[in-house]
Amino acid sequence: MQIDLWLSAVIFGFSVSGILFLVSLGISIGFGLMRIVNMEQMLYYTFGAYMTYTMLTWTGNYWLGMVAAIVVAAFLGFIVETQLLRRVYGREMMFTMVVTFSVFLIGIGLVQYIWGLDPKPVPSPTQFMVPIFGVKMPIYRLLVISIALFVYILVQIFLNKTIIGKAIRAGIENPQNVQGLGINIYKIFTLTFVVASGLAGLGGALNAPLTMTGPYMGFDMLLFAFITVILGGLGSIKGTLVSALILGQVISIGGTIWSPLSFVAPFVVMFFVILIRPTGLYGVAGKAFGFE
């Protein structure tokens, strides 16, 4: 029975890692490319969860709700980036944090107005269990892990094999040089932000059956997302994935040992890593937290 418990904790931890990776990617890339701390990413995560709940209520189809979550989150990201964030590029980091956090709070108010304060349950799209080393695991958890890995592979292919992706990578390293080549950096910003917002919405859709969908769900995820990007290194996609894998296990296994550890242990891990590597696991030296 003890082995079953620990194996379940590990599998659950990987599913938590998948959610963390999807919702943290936008914060990491947003800082690396646009030099802003886009705290409103968790708004798209929240809207993604609620759109999944709404479409599931209307149609009974969870997967249709997931598609709606991605589309709505990406559209909201497009509106925010083109109408607001373009006006704050190049400003001080603290200024962008206040602006994006204000957007997040306004969005939470809209969520409360539209859906109310009561949490909304989203049932899992499948109840099937699969045996892994003799232990039955929910297949939905494995789907979450598979989708997150698939997204990571797609992102890596996009960044390394396409012209736009290479421009984004170059923009992360040196936006001025990219503009000097005649590339419209703002179009790259918009595309990157829309994709990141859609992935945050996907994270909300995937996490909705695992947790109750509520207006303040973004606040809890915001803390863990920031720990993820700081631990991995701001601007590093590989670092975001590695730190998400670490933190997912820390949250799941720590909570199995003693439930308060699921919240406290990630902060402890971040504390010790930052003592050794102030820029995070894969951060760029000299640019941690926006300081040159």
The gist of it:
This protein is an all-alpha fold and 292 residues long. The chain is built from eleven helices and two strands; from the N terminus they run ααααββααααααα.
Describe the structure.
The chain has 292 residues and is mainly alpha-helical. The protein has one domain (2-216). It is 73% helix and 3% strand. It has eleven helices and two strands. The protein has helices spanning 2-34, 41-59, 62-83, 93-115, 139-161, 163-173, 175-180, 185-207, 217-232, 237-257, 261-276, and strands spanning 129-132, 135-138. A two-stranded antiparallel ribbon has the order 1-2. The longest helix has 33 residues, at 2-34. It starts with a helix and ends in a 16-residue tail after the last helix. Residues 286-292 have low confidence and may be disordered.
Query: How many discrete domains?
Result: 1
Stretches where pLDDT is under 50 for at least 5 consecutive residues are 286-292
Anisotropy-based shape: globular
Strand order in the largest sheet: 1-2
List keywords for this structure.
globular, two-stranded antiparallel ribbon, mainly alpha, 292 residues, disordered C terminus
